[in-house]
Specification:
single chain; binds adenosine-5'-triphosphate; alpha/beta; 2 domains; Rossmann fold
Amino acid sequence: MISLHGVSHTFGNVEALAGIDLEVGEHEFVAVIGRSGCGKSTLLRLIAGLLTPSEGQVLVAGDRVAKPRRDVSFMFQQPALLPWRSVLSNVLLPIEIFGFTRREYRDRAHELLDLVGLGGFEKRLPHELSGGMRQRVSLCRSLIQSPRVMLMDEPFSALDAITRTELSEELQRVQLELPRTVVFVTHSIDEAVLLADRIVVLSPRPGRIHKIVDVDLPRPRALGQVELDQVSRELRGLLAEVTA
Ligand SMILES: Nc1ncnc2c1ncn2[C@@H]1O[C@H](COP(=O)(O)OP(=O)(O)OP(=O)(O)O)[C@@H](O)[C@H]1O
């Protein structure tokens, strides 16, 4: 579904990413970890078509990415909801932006809100919600147009530890019910191991793929499971290797 061939990216004289080759299959969940500044967000922005690679090619569903696509959604660290719009209207925002008819997506919006435990909150305004609830709204908004690809840039990192755990478990459930192709950037090794089929470990700037770790464990997984801890240990070792 996503292919990167020899992708490098330079900002002025800052080489952010170098020689990235990566294939992400349909409905695969790939997590990307690495030190701060190693180019994780740059990688997502290249796949999103928000940046054009200095070298190489990015393909989504076989097409070269030249600009943002309707079937690719992006979820950020901050939920970025419009404060004057209700929960329901925020979820439906991409539908308006893409010029679809809101009415046709209303039922789907309700279903998604139910799926993340926000049924009954449709008319609330963002300031009436907790941080975790707002990020759940943001998750529904990125699912509303049934994207083929979801790009997630540290979506839970602004949340407290308990809410963060809840939301990563919830994302696992959503992914089991509505599988998508996901590229998920995180600083949390545990989150990556809970959610991902494969984990890409980037080396420090310029980011290169140091190793790709397969997480071949059955789902649903639970944080604290012994098998997950073994993979987490391996990843800690790999991160220590690249930063040594
Ligand atoms: N628009 C930009 N202009 C100039 N330099 C940039 C720009 N965006 C990113 N960079 C630089 O490129 C490098 C990679 O940045 P990027 O945000 O992709 O890293 P990251 O791994 O996502 O970092 P973090 O984990 O801290 O979010 C960094 O050195 C950053 O300073």
